[in-house]
């Protein structure tokens, strides 16, 4: 009876293991990340400090020509001129880069352009997402950036957060100097087609793209990319686990020590 019981237990355990899903092989999957709204947040404290350092008088458009220039080419910012920062970022979401906007402002008012660039570049990491990216890195998954961020802004972020970006390999950003006549940014399908052509030309891997804007998600899916609409870290973690990515069920207090590695 004793040995019969042990035999049945062994059979049950063996049967259970047959239903444990296999982990997704890192050699068959790559991740493509949006930056702003997913991995990074605006650093409001530093933005406020920048406003204080430049002074409200400097921040105002100092010449009528600059105001007319901004209005003619880009439209009017909503509300006070302080909203130039958010206006520039919103233009980026609509298909024009913040860098191109700043470049055009600089043609008329360099000091104002310097302010916008400095303030708009103040970004901080989403701590829980740092942990998730670190987990994927430790598991051996390739991670790339797939963002509308300008090339020089991206270079600035890499200098501020070198450890974090050491977990990424080459990705896709936007060079404003090349898009005066042909803006190729999300949600333009050509953005994703170029990404695939460069990093997955033979369709040997599944690309999992993560973005907080639904129009980008739909465009990526139309190009055959597995795309996840980001709302929060917990939901993303759950969705990735459902795809057999062997992440931990949730972030523990102990895990948060990893965040310190990615800070300045």
From TrEMBL:
- What taxonomic lineage is listed for the species of origin? Bacteria, Candidatus Babelota, Vermiphilus
Q: Which protein are we looking at?
A: Haloacid dehalogenase
Q: Which InterPro entries match?
A: HAD-like_sf, HAD_sf
Q: Which domain of life is it from?
A: Bacteria
> What species is this protein from?
candidate division TM6 bacterium JCVI TM6SC1
């Amino acid at each position: 009876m004793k040995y019969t019981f042990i035999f049945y237990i062994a059979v049950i355990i063996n049967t259970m293991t047959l239903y444990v899903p296999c982990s997704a092989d890192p050699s068959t999957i790559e991740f493509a990340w949006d930056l702003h709204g997913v991995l990074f947040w605006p650093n409001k404290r530093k933005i406020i400090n920048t406003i204080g350092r430049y002074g409200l008088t400097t921040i105002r458009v100092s010449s009528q020509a600059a105001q007319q220039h901004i209005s003619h080419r880009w439209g009017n910012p909503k509300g006070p001129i302080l909203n130039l920062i958010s206006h520039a970022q919103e233009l980026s979401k609509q298909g024009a880069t913040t860098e191109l906007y700043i470049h055009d402002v600089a043609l008329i008012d360099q000091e104002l352009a310097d302010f916008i660039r400095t303030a708009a570049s103040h970004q901080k990491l989403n701590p829980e997402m740092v942990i998730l990216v670190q987990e994927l890195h430790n598991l051996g998954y390739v991670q790339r950036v797939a963002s509308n961020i300008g090339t020089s802004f991206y270079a600035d972020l890499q200098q501020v957060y070198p450890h974090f970006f050491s977990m990424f390999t080459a990705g896709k950003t936007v060079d404003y100097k090349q898009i005066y006549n042909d803006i190729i940014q999300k949600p333009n399908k050509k953005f994703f087609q170029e990404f695939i052509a460069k990093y997955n030309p033979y369709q040997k891997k599944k690309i999992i793209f993560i973005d907080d804007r639904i129009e980008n998600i739909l465009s990526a899916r139309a190009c055959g990319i597995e795309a996840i609409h980001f709302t929060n870290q917990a939901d993303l973690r759950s969705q990735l686990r459902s795809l057999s990515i062997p992440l931990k069920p949730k972030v523990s207090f102990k895990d948060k020590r990893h965040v310190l590695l990615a800070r300045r």
